[in-house]
Every structure is written in C-alpha cells, then in structure tokens.
Design brief:
The chain has nine helices and 19 strands. Helix 9 links the parallel strand 18 and strand 19. Helix 3 packs across helix 4.
C-alpha cells in the first residue's frame, strides 16, 4: 500500500532540492557520489529532520563493501566489495541508498497538526527501529534499510525522534545514536553491575569508548584492549586498565579473570576471549570488524556455563535511557569523544581516515563545516 501524503506544517522554508551522498552499490569509494536530489516528501506519521551532524560508523562502510554478505569471510579492512543481493543487515540493501546511521538534527516539517509540537526541536533519531513491536526481534535500520542522514534532510517516523535538552554540541550528539545505543544494548543484556570486571575489545572506537563509559557509570571495573598508540588516551577516559591489542591477550589478562566481554571485533582473538571469561561469564557481540569467521571450541561454552549474547535489535528501553543519561546528572559520566569533523562532501576522506583506525572516539560529518554547533 502506498503511504498517504498529508498536508505539512513547516518550521522554516524547505528547499525543493538538497545535497546528499548517494551510495550507488557495493564497491569502493567511487560508489559514493554527492548529488543534488529532491528533499523527501513526508508521508503520514513522519517528520522531516534537518541534519545538523551525522556520525560515521563501521556499518556504513560494511554495507558499501557488501561485507554483510555470507560470501565474505574476512574483516572489513580486507574486503574490497562483493556484488551480492544479500549485502544488507536484514534484507537486500536498497541501492542507490543515502547512508548515515547517526543523526542529530532539527525537526523542520511535520505531516499533521498533531505533530506541530516537534517543529524547531533539536532531536536525535533512533536508528534501530522495531516495526513489529518489541515482542519480535525483527528490526530495520536507518541507512541500511532506508535512506539515512548523509544528507541535508532525512525523513523518519515520528516515534523514532527523541527530544534532547542539553548543552552538548550537535557534533557530540551525532556521536551518540549508533555507538552508544549498540554499547548500551550489550551492557544491558549482559547485566553489567558494580561487581563485574568487564573486558572491552576495540576500546578506542566509538562503541568501545561508549561501552567504557556506560560500564563505569554502573560501577564496573573495566579493562580495554586498544592499539598501543592510543592506550594513554583511553586510560584518561576512565579505563581501570588498558592493554595493547598487538600482544597476546594472555600476556596481560589471566584465564578466568573476567566476568563480561563486550566485543565488536571478533576475528582470530575470539577463542582467547572465551578463555579469559570466568565460569558463568557473559560474552556480548555487536560486530566482527576483524573477521566474522572464528575458531570456537564448544567445550569452552558448555563446560564453563557461558552465556553468548548477540546484539543487533535494541531493547525498548535502550534509547530512552541514553536520552535520560544525557539530560540528567549522569551526563557528567558519559560524553562522546569526537576525533575529527569533516564536511559532508568529504565523506570519502572521512571513511578513508576511519578505516586507518588512528582515531579515538568518533568521526563526524556536517553538511557545512562553518555551521554553528
């Protein structure tokens, strides 16, 4: 059924066209093209958000590379692009696609008079959406299943925008949705408490730094695995211990010494992560940028009574809790670290820098580098 187009109510003049980075298909950076395209037309129960800033994430690069195809067995850095109709997270990616999972923006148009209270409000968009409700694990993701925030405007369902009142910049807020949402979902499902010792892989990235702050907020003791050049920066962010990813894990972490592992890396180090878990420990994963194919000894699972947790579809309370953390006294315990900011037109450079993994925290795009933050 074609959604009904309704009368709209505007906060400001909406142009007919906008600038957007369109991903044409799977492949290299040449698949990213800055185009002038029509501003989306609202359908019922939708709002139009003017993008103020948009974070850069692994999932956008993975989608462009076709990494989610089951034919891919290597890590993100080794993937050159796979022609596959099954390149998306949940369903075939609808190329051409505007990517951009993270969005901080301002609501500038609504589709009905019942929504006018949103006009002019600064919001975050929840990118993980549960169209069949929270009794089903089915999810759709902005920028993977439908157009996202690498544009001047994005059209989203009204119930997926969240008002946020704080003194954070647009760029800081744009660092929250994917990284902090994914981290909070894992930390919540792994039931991290003050009694736990948590080991975090990829500790200098967006998810790793978010997980560090969210675990420390709960009073847990945290060990982060990071590149040697970033150890001091992550230590300064609150990690109780930082160990280099370059060395064997057992040189720094004893077997059966960790209660929880928060992993977004995967790859060849997976089996060691299970060995450092205590009996009854919990392992949570939301990614495998170092490689999806791992060595897995089932005896480590059942003889130690481990719990393995996959994490893609966010639980209902995840995003509202993040907004509450930001707006409350907890805001002093979490704060995104922004490493670099690029213009939207510099997306190829931004993704190139992202893949070098020299950054700590987030890389963010803005439609215009000189816009007020």
């Amino acid at each position: 059924m074609t959604p009904i187009t309704t009368d709209s109510y505007q906060f400001e003049t909406i142009p007919a066209n906008m600038q957007a980075v369109v991903t044409l298909g799977t492949g290299g950076l040449d698949q990213l093209q800055l185009k002038e395209i029509p501003v989306p037309t609202l359908r019922t129960h939708e709002v139009l958000v003017k993008v103020l800033a948009a974070g850069v994430n692994n999932n956008e690069i993975n989608t462009r590379l076709g990494w989610y195809s089951s034919s891919v067995t290597e890590g993100t850095a080794e993937t050159l692009g796979h022609e596959s109709s099954r390149s998306g997270w949940n369903q075939p990616t609808p190329f051409p696609l505007i990517q951009g999972t993270d969005c901080c923006g301002r609501v500038v148009q609504v589709s009905s008079s019942q929504q006018v209270h949103w006009l002019g409000k600064r919001v975050l968009v929840r990118p993980c959406m549960r169209p069949h409700g929270y009794s089903s694990m089915e999810s759709v993701w902005m920028a993977s299943d439908f157009d996202g925030a690498f544009a001047q405007y994005v059209r989203v369902p009204e119930n997926e925008v969240f008002l946020v009142n704080c003194d954070w910049t647009d760029i800081e807020l744009a660092s929250v949705p994917c990284a902090y949402g994914s981290a909070e979902n894992m930390v919540h499902r792994a039931t991290v408490t003050s009694a736990d010792h948590v080991l975090i892989t990829g500790g200098s990235g967006g998810i790793g730094t978010a997980a560090l702050q969210l675990c420390k907020m709960r009073g847990a003791r945290v060990t982060s695995i990071v590149g040697e050049s970033k150890m001091e920066q992550v230590q300064d962010m609150g990690a109780d211990r930082v160990i280099p990813r370059e060395g064997p894990l057992f040189d720094f972490c004893q077997k059966e010494s960790v209660d929880v592992v928060i992993d977004s890396v995967g790859g060849k180090g997976f089996s060691e992560l299970l060995q450092v878990l205590k009996r009854g420990g919990r392992y949570a994963s939301c990614g495998a940028i170092a490689g999806p194919m791992v060595a897995f000894d089932l005896r480590a699972l059942y003889l130690k009574d481990l719990t393995l947790i996959g994490s893609t579809a966010w639980d209902q309370g995840v995003f509202p809790r993040l907004i509450a953390y930001i707006e409350s006294e907890e805001s002093g315990k979490i704060r995104p670290r922004v490493d670099r900011v690029f213009q939207l037109s510099e997306i190829a450079q931004a993704q190139t820098e992202f893949l070098k993994k020299n950054h700590v925290g987030k890389i963010v795009l803005v439609p215009r580098i000189n816009q007020p933050h």
